[in-house]
Amino acid sequence: MLPAMWAFPLAAAALALAFASLLLRQLLARRRSHQAFWAIALLMYAAASLALFLGVVDGWTSAEYRVYWLFGAVLNVPFLAQGEIQLLVRSRAVTAVLGVLLVFGTAFALARVRTAQVDPAALIRDLPLGREVFRNDPFALDLARYFAFPAYFILLAGTLWSALRVRRAPELRNRFLGTLGIAIGATIVAAGSAFAATGRFVGFSITLTVGIGVMFWGFLRASRPGLPHTQAGPPKGVARST
Predict the structure, then answer these.
(1) Residue 241's pLDDT band (boundaries 50, 70, 90)?
(2) What percent of the chain has pLDDT over 70?
(3) C-alpha closest to that of 45 among 66, 25, 15
């Protein structure tokens, strides 16, 4: 490992905590459910990144790896996706059913990862491989596939659809660019799983930090007020008044 590479997961944890604190402040002010799910997801991201930092600096314990796996590989993306669903889906029945399923899925994953058999010999690497850590309990490994993969595509589809809806409105340019940034950041983080699958700590830690940084930038950009119509120009097909 290159010197001081531990700084990347620590920076990722700090960015995720800053992101979560902003969401929590907005939640207290606006009481919107999607902000609660996103805040929980970012707190999970921070916990997983901090576990990665501790594992690299002082050697992995089974508890640290369970935290890293549960909150980073399994549950983080489903909570982001549920927040996107809460934002876009107007049917309260649909969002309520999906929310209940997420709660039960979270409880199941928590119990399953907490009791999963861990091979201590696999924890000697800077970035232990899930397939080696859970070699005696492959279902704990498969949870990441069952939970995170479908949720990522839901999140990506939702953010891209949100961006496309406003792409032709100049006054909503901040929202368009910010939403696109969130989608790109989530994709960078997802791409980092290729490094994690091969135990490449340097590549994984960089994508972990860059991805959350781009997502945070996207959220801040999307939260900026849009330009008034007088500055952005008239809507397409409408002549400017004189």
Answers:
(1) very low
(2) 92
(3) 15
Characterize 75-87 residue by residue with b for buried, 16 or more Cβ atoms within 10 angstroms of its Cβ, and e for exposed.
Answer: bbbbbbbbbbbbb
User: Domains along the chain?
Assistant: 7-223 (1.20.1070)
d(CA 27, CA 221): 18
The dihedral through the CA atoms of 28, 223, 71, 122 has a sign that is: negative
The CA–CA distances, whole Å, from 66 to 110, 138, 155 equal 9, 14, 24
Instruction: Please tell me what DSSP assigns to residue 100.
Output: H
**Distance (Å, rounded) from C-alpha 80 to C-alpha 147?**
12
pLDDT digits (tens, 9 = 90+) for 188-216: 999 998 888 888 888 999 999 999 999 99
Instruction: Give pTM, 2 decimals.
Output: 0.88
Q: Is 137 in a helix, a strand, or coil?
A: coil
Distance spanning both ends of the chain, measured CA to CA = 65
SS3 190: helix
Comparing CA positions, the residue from 101, 92, 126 lying closest to residue 204 is: 126
For 235, which DSSP code? Answer: P
DSSP 58-96: H---HHHHHHHIIIIIISHHHHHHHHHHHHH---HHHHH
Q: What is the pLDDT of residues 79-109, one digit of tens each?
A: 999 999 998 998 999 999 999 999 999 999 9
How many other CB atoms are there within 10 angstroms of residue 94's CB atom? Answer: 11
Amino acid identity of 156? L
